[in-house]
Amino acid sequence: MAEREWYYAQGNRQEGPISERGLIELLAVGKLPLTTLVWCEEMSNWSPASTVDVFRALGAATQPIAAPQQQPQQYAPAPNSPPPLNIVQQQSYNPPQPVQGYAQQPPYNQGQGFGNQGATLREQPGMPYQGASPDGYSTRPRPWHRFFARCLDNSAVYAVPENITSFILLAIIASVSHMSSDEFKGVVPIALLLPMPIPFFAEAVFLSFLGATPGKMLLNIRVRNRNGSKLSFMQALQRTGAVWLRGGRAVAYIPLIGGFAAMGLAIYQFMNLNKNGITSWDRNQDLIYEHGPIDGGRIVGIVALAFFAFVWTCGFAGLIIYGLNNH
User: Fold this and answer.
1) Calpha distance 235→279 (Å, rounded)
2) Of the residues 147, 166, 270, 314, which has the fewest C-beta atoms closer than 10 A?
3) pTM
4) For 92, which DSSP code?
5) In a domain, 277, yes or no
């Protein structure tokens, strides 16, 4: 049975949908009070979380709190959406206006444009906003885009300095040592692993200075702080470390089982991204991972870089094999 999806009120906004597990987590850690109004399709109207059975055990008062006796503002419901949420008019709040190029939509309908509310939604700590920001970027999860961007970075961008460094190390070892062929073959894996820190620091540099890696830029992906600023170098290092540890890059270097372990972690993170809409490392650092449209020029660049990665990989592998056979 599919997990129920919930909507909840936060300030003067209706948020959601969010999985039941995700809402329980927000209530349990105190990011939302148990007086928060919630709704799912099985309910006829909004109710405080403390009065709903699935959330009652989290331990707040079970009596609903009366709404302030002020003039409410209502949003008209969209089809299959929650009933209107009474929102107390705030002095600083202006109803959202559509951005040029986006059709008029209910302001908080999942997957649709948010109009000028994109900036407001960025300010909600620890929560991904779902929809389009004013500049046309969206946080709707696209796991395959992320996967292809990572493949391009690993095989075409980071592989070049890694492979060149490994080749120089092997050339130095071959020229100054008097190893036998078997001894030289034992040194090759070490020379291939020694440049491993290069892509680690290279990715942090790209993220902090450009806001994206080359592969991400081709797929029009960017990583930002909630306020829209680029990551600092230390933030980028922290994110890269989390990606390596949790995303499978680090375990890929383990002999024999590394490939299987990395594949298992990648599948696990793929499923989590589809379910939660955000990766654990971006949620922990409160970062925004955004996708923009991919035009024809970017597609040409992707194909060209993928072709270069193929030629480079084949050429480097052939060079290593040739060196082993002729040492």
Assistant:
1) 16
2) 314
3) 0.56
4) T
5) yes
Give how far Cα 188 sits from Cα of 120, 170, 179, 197, 325, Å.
53, 7, 12, 17, 13
User: Is 10 contained in some domain?
Assistant: yes
Residue 169 and residue 74 share a domain = no
Number of domains forming the structure of the chain: 2
Tell me how many degrees the CA angle 61-63-65 measures, rounded to the nearest 5.
105
Instruction: Give the C-alpha separation, 218 to 309, whole Å.
Output: 14
- The DSSP output letter for 253 is G
Task: List, edge to edge, every strand of the sheet that includes 13-19.
Answer: 13-19, 5-10, 37-39, 47-48
Distance CA 163, CA 309 (A): 12
Beta pairing class for 72-73 and 47-48: unpaired
In a shared domain, residues 76 and 197: no
Q: Cα dihedral sign for 123, 81, 109, 296? A: positive
Tens-binned pLDDT, residue by residue, of the chain (327 aa):
567 888 888 877 788 888 888 888 888 888 888 888 998 988 888 889 888 888 887 764 334 444 444 444 444 344 456 666 654 433 333 433 433 333 333 333 333 333 333 333 343 444 444 444 556 788 888 888 998 998 899 888 888 888 888 888 888 887 877 777 777 778 888 888 888 888 889 999 999 999 999 999 999 999 999 888 899 999 999 999 998 888 877 777 777 777 788 888 888 888 888 888 888 888 888 898 989 989 999 999 999 999 999 998 898 888 878 777 776
Domain span holding position 241: 143-326
* Residue 136 belongs to a domain: no
Angle between helices 159-176 and 181-193 (to 10 degrees): 150
